[in-house]
Known about the structure:
CATH architecture of the largest domain: 3-Layer(aba) Sandwich
Keywords: ATP-binding, Helicase, Hydrolase, Nucleotide-binding
Distance between the termini: 79 Å
GO molecular function: ATP binding; helicase activity; hydrolase activity
Structural class: alpha/beta
CATH superfamily of the largest domain: P-loop containing nucleotide triphosphate hydrolases
Pfam families: Helicase_C, SNF2-rel_dom
Organism: Desulfobacca acetoxidans
Protein name: Helicase
Amino acid sequence: MTSSFSHIHEGCIVVGSLFNEPMRVETVRASGDGTWIVGLVGMQSERFRKVTLSAHELEGLTILEAGFTYKGDGHLLRLGLQAYSLGIAWEFDPYFGLSISRVDPLPHQLEAVYDYLLKAPRVRFLLADDAGAGKTIMGGLLIRELQLRGLAERILIVCPANLAFQWQRELKEKFDEKFLLLRGGDIRDQFGVNQWLEQKKVITSLDLAKRTEILPGLRQVNWDLIIVDEAHRMSWTPPARKTARYALGELLRDTSDHLLLLTATPHKGDPANFSLFLKLLDPDAYADVRSIREAMERRRAPFYLRRTKEAMVYFPERRPDGTWAAEKIFTKRIPNTVDFQIDGPEFDLYRDVTRFVKRQSAKAAAQGDDPRARAVGFLMSLYQRRLASSTYALRHSLENRARRLEEGLKKAQELARQAPPDLPDPEELEEMEEVERERLEELLEAITLAANADQVREEIAELRHLAQQAQAVEASNLEAKLTKLKNLLHREGFFDNPDQRLLLFTEFKDTLDYLVTKLKSWGFSVGCIHGGMKPGSRDEPGTRLYAEQQFREGAIQVLVATEAAGEGINLQVCHILFNYDIPWNPNRLEQRMGRIHRYGQRHDCLIFNFVATNTIEGKVLQRLLEKLQEIRNALDDDAVFNVVGEVLPAAHIERVLRDYYAGKLGDADLEERLLENVDESRFRAICQTALEGLASKKLNLEMLIERRARAQERRVVPETIARFLRDAAAYVPLNLRIVDNLPHTFEPTRTPPALRRHERDPDWKLPPLASKYPRCSTDRDTAEKNNLEWVTPGHPFFEAIRRHTSAKAAQAFSQGACFYSLQHASPARLDFFRARVVDGLGQVVHERLFAVELAGNSAPCLREPTLLGDFSPAEPPAELPAIAREPEPLTWLHQNALQAFLDETRAERLTEVERIAAHVELSLTELLQRADEEIGKANEDREKGIPGAD
């Protein structure tokens, strides 16, 4: 080798401190001022760089000798090959992301991530498995696998506010991924700085991201991957009005490369809405409802996947007779209706409140679509819901409205000018955050349809009278539902068995407060979760996480919760749930049950629904529950409960009852209107398809078992990683002190600059290196039991050492090395080849390492790339054997390995592309037909002379 810059020429390979890898010289040109302009390509990264070098800098470069001399460092060459293999470990371990994550996934999770998401050249997917299926785990696995492939650096997770902390916690605990939880205050505090650009891994709330003042900053950022949890909240809400959440969905679609939508309730019973929702994945592929329905019938729906709980099983276990049996993950759900009747003063209160609500609703309906009328109509139905929940909740609302109207009456002109707040459509109202909904109710309390001050005084007097009636009912301690609750607690053994836990749901915070007080007075240890609580931590009293942890550990027996606990909280330690009031949104029932009916639940889940059978609302809800149970019994399928939201839109019950209160429906019409779509045939059809898209009704367990076994054989074991780190550290240099009493554990010294420099690599997509790492282990169990840093491929410390090793080994790669082999009787040569298949955009689809052995007169043959581990590095002989000068077997390799590799990759891609193309063709055909119809109608209108037809 030489070091004189005068020998620099096109085609030569140079190394030196200026570069972190060997560089091939492509162009050399003197600039005339004593410097040289040199174009170079990295031998590993294949990135082109043009640099201006002085004569002194050129003198510092080393030109590697052309051709293989086999004088390289054999230890370093072998270590470099191992570093390369570990960098593409996901190519030969089908579940590599699992090997370096703290999760033990289930078959349906593996199928979703590895057979659907990662098979797509660009992830654009709706994953709509039932609640409790572990969608957070699947999202985390996708993040890990895309990062390993170098495809995801900037990642955004959008979810309801009450789930944000859970995402942050689970990604840290299970995948060692650190995401920033970005709140409104963080953005305001950094005025003038776009926090979306500053951070690479962000979790934020759906309702923060949708704000008009937030959208411009968000629009400036392009994300590698966006995951939206509870994505059904972004649905387009009819009539044809785009919600702020839907507009956010369009923005996220347009600013992301990979996009994953997660929801357990994708359909919401409205096919047109579902079609618009799917356009958040691809605006062209989903032309209308008919194309989607037809695609599903033909099983050509490549963008979404749904599996019901009933299709989910554990990995099979071998039975004594040699056959395999797969146990279902989810136990049974056994719903029970707890019916009761109200009477006496309680019934009088119900009758009088209902009359008041009907009178106000009819007045509102008479004013059409006036915003004030809509506001009052919504408020009246809300009072009826509060009445069904508890007398206490109703009284608080009545008193609050009376007080607000009295305050307005003192400023009569202000009351008349009081503008109603913008009301979202009923479907969007059903999806509002609890705190946001309470804030809206507070604003609505000041809105009245009274025409003058006397009418306002009349309404206030009626509100005060109703509130006094409610207070008298409370004081009597004879509320029928509360009495029924106490009796049921006795019957189910809660008073006698303090270890038996209960989850009790209600819609309203006021009812929650009321129940907590009553339950404590009966001697129960009680906790609560509601929308006004911050996530907090397991050690911070008064927070959601603290209440959840206390319930799990048995410190509290009864957990009372509002809908804030209906999503994202895992309480499978409990198997009994009371619905103290029935939500008018049927999706809420499934979400509530999903808190206890999930992975890890070992008991059948008992669900008790409280219904007053002599109220209008109670009658229709009881009939709905009975009808669902009848259909469930007829189909013998619990999936009925999973898909109820696909038959009944979220606001269906609300709309029907509001029409009833307004006088548009009579008592006889109410049940017929409510249940018009609830029939066995419709549920049967939906349960059979369950929006599965590509998925089959049953998982391909044989394939999954075989693949899991293959992954076990090929997985990178902790001792392999530890040995690599130990050997590679010597070339940094870095001292890793071995901890004798813990397997595969070491204590590193301070992180040297030689490793820190890799943070500046253009393709570095990991967090910065720590200045010093604590005690580390490559073994997952050891790290978890001893609270150590778990170092695996994908960890910044490991990746920096791997890259440093690859750069160090570059010279050995270009020279070759000699080894002793006990397996060979005569000289042989091993040639290593890196093969990449790239797509039309230049993205690497697959990458593999091939080893070809040449030995004497024998034909070339493929060998395992790990074969060098069986050999010992040796000094080169005085004279190289003839086999060393044989030409490279590129033609043989292409015919015997590379072509098959290419064909395999092409077939994989073609299958996916054909599936997508078939669906897009179906959709575009529908779009063209619709356009033809519109053009034809426009021509007819023009011929008729209709104004504006031109």
